[in-house]
Amino acid sequence: MNDYQPTILPADAGQKDDDIMAAHSLTGTKESPLVILEMLQRLRVRDVMKADGVVSVVRSDTLHFAQNLMKRNSISGVPVLEEGRLFGIVSVNIIIKALEGGYIQDPCHKHMSTSLVFLEEGMPLALAIKYFQNYTFGRFPVLDKDRKFVGIVSQRDIMRAILKELAEELARYEGKKPAAATVPFGEVSTSAYTMQQYPVVHNDLQNAGRAANEIKRLLAGAGVDKKIVRRIAVAAYELEINIAIHSVGGTLTFILDGQKVTIIARDRGPGIADIEWALRDGTSTANDWVRSMGFGAGMGLANSKRVSDKFEIKSVVPSGTTVLCEFNLKKD
Amino acid sequence: MTMMIEDVVKTLDGKLVAGADTGRAVGAVVANDLMSDVLLDDSDDILLLTSLASDQVIRTANIIGAMGVVVHNGKPLPEAMCQAANNFGIPLVSTPLAKYQSCVRIHEFLSRE
User: Fold this and answer.
1) Which domain holds residue A183?
2) Cβ of A218 under 8 Å from any chain B Cβ?
3) pLDDT tens, residue by residue, A88-129
4) What ipTM is given for this predicted complex?
5) Nearest-CA distance from A3 to chain B in Å?
6) How many domains does chain B have?
7) What CATH number corresponds to the domain at position A209?
8) Is A27 among the domain residues?
């Protein structure tokens, strides 16, 4: 008996990170196209996908049945689903070939495409758009983290979501309604979105730490709670010093987005072979010169993780390391 | 007993070299030359006692919101360090004492009724 489990081509993890970082590697203010970039990062596939009432067939349904279903619902493809498990997709091309070949009464499982490219529901919209650019498919199935089918997303779904968001952004800038992302910190409000990127040079301990101090100043000026400012500043400082000490150079990116601050430290190598080891307190590869400047005690990554609400690290030898620290701006 | 920066200067036979008195009292004392360790302390209004004379000390002090920095053994303070202290408004004190002596004197001061 044939096994109909589809060949699923997972998203390239490196590409995902690169795309997110590419979008974050620009500088600007809320008036710039960054508003759109930010929107494409903020919106996730799950926000735009069609989840309810997805039309589907089972493996034993005929292609003719699938054809009628597609015609009735004006869609160009239909997923083959059984109990939440995705087995394949029947597209309009498959139907055309079946009509030409005279096998339209065959069951779907004989001809459906099983080499599937899917999107994950948590992916940013920016990445989903890349998929539509890179592949010729008109729609992608969407799976959750357990690889269960949760919906389907088409280019039309994405266009609709973007237009809706843009209309809302426009209304905000025209002052028709307050910015949704503007939240009060005590008595003070911040603007919806600020991003700054700072270069960090290898071995430049004379300047390392300037970015973190600038970030602290920005946050204090925005009226963010002092204790939270300190945690963010500590993480930014540790990461900035880490780039200067341990890498060939990189960037520190600061994003203030409504109720959330994200610090992204990205370097160009040499990468960390054993991340767990690097995260342990007291582990360091710093040289004596660095130690003489008061750094290199091996606490940097562990301390950044300690003060963050969310901490992620990804490293590839020799191409580099990306560390992401997130902070909620609600008071502790 | 509450200890202000002018008390620190007097107690340690020191001199206010840069920065201004911000009117903040000593909340905690951290004596360390490892800035990595200093960053681990979550106390408020830290008075940082160190033997390290560099502008990185001032940047670290600013990150943790220190109320003042004391450099020991009468070390010459680089211009960049003084400038950073002025920029951030962090009182920078120079003392001829060793760090341990400073710790003892500050402890005695803070222990007074």
Assistant:
1) 179-328
2) no
3) 999 888 999 999 999 999 999 999 988 888 888 888 888 888
4) 0.90
5) 56
6) 1
7) 3.30.565.10
8) no
